[in-house]
Design brief:
Blueprint lengths: L20 H14 L7 H6 L2 E2 L2 E4 L2 E4 L4 E2 L7 E5 L4 E8 L3 E9 L5 H5 L7 E5 L3 E2 L18 E3 L2 E2 L12 H7 L3 E4 L3 H11 L2 E6 L6 H10 L8 H4 L5 E3 L19 E7 L4 H9 L2 E7 L4 H6 L4 E4 L10 H10 L5 E4 L1 H9 L3 E18 L5 E13 L8 E6 L5 E6 L4 E4 L15 H15 L1
Parallel strand pairs: 7-8, 8-10, 9-11, 10-12, 15-16, 15-17, 17-18, 18-23
Antiparallel strand pairs: 1-4, 2-3, 5-6, 5-13, 6-12, 7-13, 14-16, 19-20, 19-21, 21-22, 22-23
Helix pairs in contact: 10-11
The chain binds glutamine.
Glutamine binds next to strand 20.
Length: about 450
């Protein structure tokens, strides 16, 4: 007798290798009843190549007869990791072959901001939250003008989008930007591997002509350490930034100042929300490229200088460390993430590569000055070694998950920095007032001079 919840067409179970028989039964029934595709997104439809199939089993056989679109996609991509493991998956977005470092991000929301964070250049972002794509993408949540990351790895791609701000599906968005994505892959197993063995280089490919050995070889001969990635994501010439956080999203709008402060922001891969938050706190901002000379910056007589976040190895960009050195002590400085790591080096310290880094919106940080704990947004694979810093430099924040250095200050030199992201986007807003502290630093300096 046929189980009431299973297909009346196909007896169950039936031994067919290489197919998900349960889904096949359900879908065969569905197609026979409704005669229209289960899924309506064009990108999914494209994947549903018409296939006819016959299922034979001990109690008979059923044929779909003419070609019938299968409303699921078969694995058409491979992720080959440098440890030799091969993960079969389904592709969305762009096709081709791409190499990068695989990192996992524990944020529950904000995949669009993550996709457009230039600090992910050269990396595949694996989202540990299993369900991605359900809110689509919109025109307001971009953190830069481009997706610089190597690709996106997710467990389950939402088949529909539901959000009042949505203008496009995630899949179409990635295709247009030529970014590869994969889904239906065991993201938990990969994350455990990364936690145990550390970040791994991987190659993602939809090209059947490439053998597993070729892809493995690619992963083993590529490296992200020692490479300057900031020059490829930085702007090419200076520009002014005026856009503030929209009033409906600004929760600290009571902290506003009469005065305006001119900030020169070095773009090492700057996230737009850093600029929006600075503008909201009353700053007039000139964004300059990563190679902009310190002498030119000082000629502009800024009230403060911001060194931004950015991708890759902070020890691979000595020219940027030199620029920071030439500016330290002359004007108030705020460093964020890459900017913090450059400041650490400019002060005489060293950076090191962490095992798998911090990527997510749930990292507890202790402010050592007042004992408070902030839940922070983080995205970094390197950290400043506090032992390497000269005396006078104060460690102001520590990451409570592993005790690593999360913030620095050197009051004599009018500088402050954070290893994490006070601008969030995505993530919690606990650290937002640090922008106000930077404004205070500039105000005190202005008053004293
Ligand atoms: N967000 C950032 O600025 C990242 C800094 C650096 N690329 C790191 O991975 O540590």
């Amino acid at each position: 007798m046929t189980h009431p919840r299973r297909s009346p067409l196909l007896p169950y179970p039936f031994p067919v290798s290489g197919f998900n028989t349960r889904r096949m039964a359900t879908n065969a029934m569905y197609l026979s009843v409704t005669n229209r595709p289960l899924l309506s997104r064009p990108d999914t439809i494209k994947a549903l190549q018409v296939r006819s199939f016959t299922v034979r089993c001990s109690t008979g056989s059923v044929s779909t007869g003419a070609a019938v679109p299968a409303p699921w996609k078969l694995a058409d991509a491979r992720l080959v990791l440098e440890d030799g493991s091969i993960w079969r998956a389904k592709s969305f977005g762009a096709t081709g072959t791409q190499v990068g470092e695989v990192v996992f991000n524990t944020s529950l929301t904000g995949y669009q901001e993550i996709l457009t964070d230039p600090s992910y250049a050269g990396q595949f972002v694996l989202m540990t939250n299993p369900h991605i794509g359900n809110t689509g993408v919109n025109i307001d949540d971009e953190e830069s003008i481009q997706c610089f990351l190597a690709g996106l790895i997710i467990r389950s791609l939402s088949i529909s989008t539901s959000n009042y701000r949505c203008t496009e599906s995630l899949s179409d968005y990635l295709s247009k930007r030529n970014i590869m994505g994969i889904y239906d892959v065991d993201t938990r197993a990969i994350t455990r591997r990364l936690r145990e063995d550390g970040s791994l280089i991987g190659v993602l490919s939809t090209e059947e002509s490439k053998t597993d050995e070729q892809l493995l070889e690619m992963s083993r001969t590529w490296d992200i350490v020692g490479v300057d990635l900031i020059s490829s994501v930085s702007c090419k010439k200076p520009y002014e930034w005026v856009e503030k956080t929209g009033s409906e999203w600004d929760f600290n709008s009571n902290r506003r100042h009469e005065e305006t402060f001119h900030v020169v922001a070095y773009d090492f891969g700057i996230k737009h929300n850093i600029l929006r938050r600075l503008a909201s706190y009353g700053c007039k901002i000139t964004v300059v490229p990563s190679t902009w000379p310190a002498t030119e910056t000082l000629k502009m007589k800024p009230d403060g200088v911001l060194f931004s976040n950015g991708p890759g190895d902070p020890s691979a960009v000595p020219y940027a460390v030199e620029t920071v050195k030439d500016i330290i002590g002359k004007v108030p400085i705020f460093g964020i993430c890459m900017g913090h790591q450059l400041l650490g080096q400019a002060l005489g310290g060293k950076t090191y590569k962490m095992k798998f880094g911090h990527h997510g919106g749930n990292h507890p940080v202790r402010n050592l000055r007042n004992g408070s704990v902030e839940i922070s947004a983080q995205n970094h694979n390197y950290a400043v070694d506090p032992e390497s810093l000269p005396s006078g430099v104060e460690v102001t924040h520590v990451n409570l998950n592993d005790g690593s250095c999360a913030g620095l200050a050197f009051p004599q030199q009018k500088l402050m920095s954070l290893q994490y992201h006070p601008e969030a986007s995505p993530g919690p807003h606990d650290s937002d007032l640090v922008f106000d502290h930077f404004v205070e630093l500039m105000r005190r300096e202005k008053q004293s001079s």
